[in-house]
Design goal:
By secondary structure, the chain is of the alpha+beta class. About 25% of the residues lie in helices and about 30% in strands. Helix 1 packs across helix 3.
């Protein structure tokens, strides 16, 4: 994943294209123009760095950062299938037009340079995924557990921690974002939550003794999937000798406190 503030990290060096990328400022770029730009940039990347990448797609989505109001996720590398050591990994790279457009509205923004940086950053992630089969297996397991959650089937209440870490206590699995809190620590009774630079009041859940998975409704800039506040019970010594209570899933409303 590459957010606007991310640098060009990773050990693998992808040579810069000879294709000139002039500065174009923060003017509006249409979705079809952005797709054409990305297609041109993909053709400039040497074939040896694209092995196993089955598609480079442009999504219309905007992916806001769960904490910072001026940060958006620009691209993602999604592993699809692999076997053995992971050397045969197939991946899909996605650049999010909505995130580019949101940043473009905030001020001076070089669409071409940011698209190139994002594309090569995600290609590095593809190469790194190939070398880390344990991380691939954990990612796949988290996605399976999240699918079970959506379907109403039993799931491991800590699965999201095997997803992609976005911030302290915040993870992403597929399009869903999970914010973990301990009961009484800014959740439930206190009810305050920060999302994408805004502070919200969370409606009190009906609750239960076990972990709460609270899907948040009413965010000004929600993620493409669910925003889920996970409230886990505070640890108690007696709980070690009792049957673990069932988790509860609810939809709760949030309201902006600092509009």
């Amino acid at each position: 994943m590459r957010s606007a503030e991310c640098g060009m990290e990773g050990r693998t060096s992808i040579p810069h294209s000879d294709f000139r990328i002039p500065h174009c400022g923060g003017g509006a770029v249409r979705l079809d123009e952005f797709r054409s730009l990305v297609e041109r940039l993909v053709r400039e990347i040497p074939a040896e760095f694209r092995g196993g990448v089955v598609a480079v797609d442009v999504s219309p989505k905007a992916l806001p950062h769960p904490v910072h109001g001026d940060v958006y996720t620009l691209g993602e590398c999604v592993p699809l299938e692999w076997s053995g050591s992971g050397a045969d990994l197939h991946s899909r790279i996605i650049l999010h037009y909505g995130s580019f457009a949101s940043l473009g509205r905030l001020g001076d923004f070089d669409w071409r340079a940011e698209a190139w940086e994002t594309l090569t950053h995600e290609l590095r992630h593809h190469l790194e995924w190939r070398a880390n089969v344990d991380a691939l297996a954990a990612y796949d397991w988290a996605a399976e557990q999240n699918f079970a959650r959506h379907e109403g089937h039993p799931f491991d209440p800590s699965f999201f921690r095997s997803g992609e870490a976005l911030h302290d206590g915040i993870w992403k699995v597929d399009d869903d974002v999970f914010i973990e809190r301990e009961q009484g620590a800014g959740s439930g009774e206190q009810g305050d939550l920060v999302w994408h630079g805004r502070r919200y009041r969370v409606a009190p859940p009906r609750g239960g003794a076990g972990p709460l998975f609270l899907t948040l409704e009413g965010l000004v800039e929600p993620p493409p999937g669910d925003a889920v506040l996970v409230v886990r019970p505070a640890p108690r010594l007696l709980e070690l000798f009792r049957r673990r209570p069932a988790l509860v899933q609810e939809v709760v409303e949030v309201t902006v406190r600092d509009a």
